[in-house]
Specification:
Elements lengths: L2 E3 L6 E3 L1 E3 L11 H13 L4 E3 L8 H10 L8 E6 L14 H15 L4 E6 L8 H13 L3 E7 L3 H14 L4 E5 L13 H8 L2 E5 L22 H4 L1 H5 L3 H17 L3 H10 L4 E6 L4 H8 L8 H11 L1
Parallel strand pairs: 3-10, 4-5, 5-6, 6-7, 7-8, 8-9, 9-10
Antiparallel strand pairs: 1-2
């Protein structure tokens, strides 16, 4: 496993990281979830991601419990807040009240003294940026959070946050967590250039397009029963004949390189130096073992050009 600096910070994270969205604390059998985390750690993955809203806190509880078996300094743990965690008017968003209460609740569920990264899970137009960033800065000064991050913020929102942080001498954002894969490349236009200038690294989610880029889907009418697409309608809706055809063409390149099409897709993401880590999910240990093999794969200019022709 290879490691990269996260943005302009000194923090180093594994090129492949393990997430718990749609997996742990939910439909994944507990033993498989536990063994997937342990396998990831054994493979050198040091970056584990969760959020308060994942299975309403159950994912945090499971991830925290498994990681407690390892030295705290040996891994990087991230969580998030924004989405509703209750029915009250202050049970959501990025107010000082909600952030403070949710970080404390997350630490209790995780059974940890601090998290390495706290993400603003989405942008909150109803809360002044100064209030949000000051609350996170306070938590950093208290030692409950080490680094600040955002997820799925627009370039203009990130730029404004950087300006506010500099104006009030608050801790700057060092990481952005956007969706990014061969079929969803919106961050390339504005967000990556801004991040490169500003010392912000990307930790991307859905790098395999919910499994589509593993080659498991060969037809929109033949969906494997054990797949996410079989269980989640919105995942199924993202699978099209056009995308399946492109994956088949990508698979030809993968065979030539003697790697899986999934590893090709992950290596393609990691071609970008601004991407610190590709965040994968795993419902079985063998899936994380396979994904971890993508770390260190370098694609030639010729291969990258062939991939671009297919994607375009």
């Amino acid at each position: 496993m290879k490691y990269r600096r996260l943005g302009g910070s000194g923090l180093k994270v594994s090129e492949i990281s393990l997430g718990s969205w749609l997996t742990y604390g939910g439909y994944v059998e507990r033993e498989n979830a536990v063994n997937s985390i342990k396998t990831a750690y054994d493979l050198g993955i040091n970056f584990f991601d969760t959020a308060n809203v994942y299975e309403n806190g159950a994912a945090e509880e499971l991830v925290g419990k498994v990681l407690k078996d390892y030295p705290r300094e040996s891994y990087v743990l991230a969580t998030k807040a924004f989405w509703p965690m209750g029915d009250g008017p202050n049970d959501r968003g990025l107010s000082r009240k909600h952030i403070t209460e949710q970080v404390n609740a997350s630490l209790k569920r995780l059974d940890h003294d601090y998290v390495d990264i706290f993400y603003c899970h989405r942008h909150d137009p109803e809360t002044p940026l100064h209030e949000t960033l000051r609350a996170i800065d306070d938590l950093i000064r208290q030692g409950k959070v080490l680094y600040a991050g955002v997820s799925e913020w627009q370039a203009s929102e990130i730029a404004e946050a950087l300006g506010v942080a500099d104006r009030y001498l608050l801790d700057r954002i060092i990481v952005n967590q956007p969706i990014y894969n061969m079929f969803d490349r919106y961050i390339e236009k504005e967000i990556i250039p801004l991040s490169e200038r500003s010392g912000i690294g990307q930790v991307v989610f859905c790098p395999l397009a919910q499994g589509l880029l593993t080659g498991k889907y060969t037809s929109i009418t033949n969906i494997p029963q054990d797949s996410r697409a079989a269980k989640l309608e919105w995942v199924r809706e993202g699978i099209t004949d056009e995308k399946i055809a492109k994956v088949a063409q990508l698979a030809v390149i993968a065979v030539e390189l003697e790697i899986s099409v999934g590893n090709l897709a992950l290596a393609w993401i990691l071609r970008n130096d601004n991407v610190a880590s590709a965040l994968v999910g795993a419902s079985r240990p063998d899936q994380i073992t396979g994904n971890a093999k993508a770390s260190g794969i370098e694609l030639s200019e010729d291969v990258l050009n062939r991939i671009e022709e297919i994607l375009q």
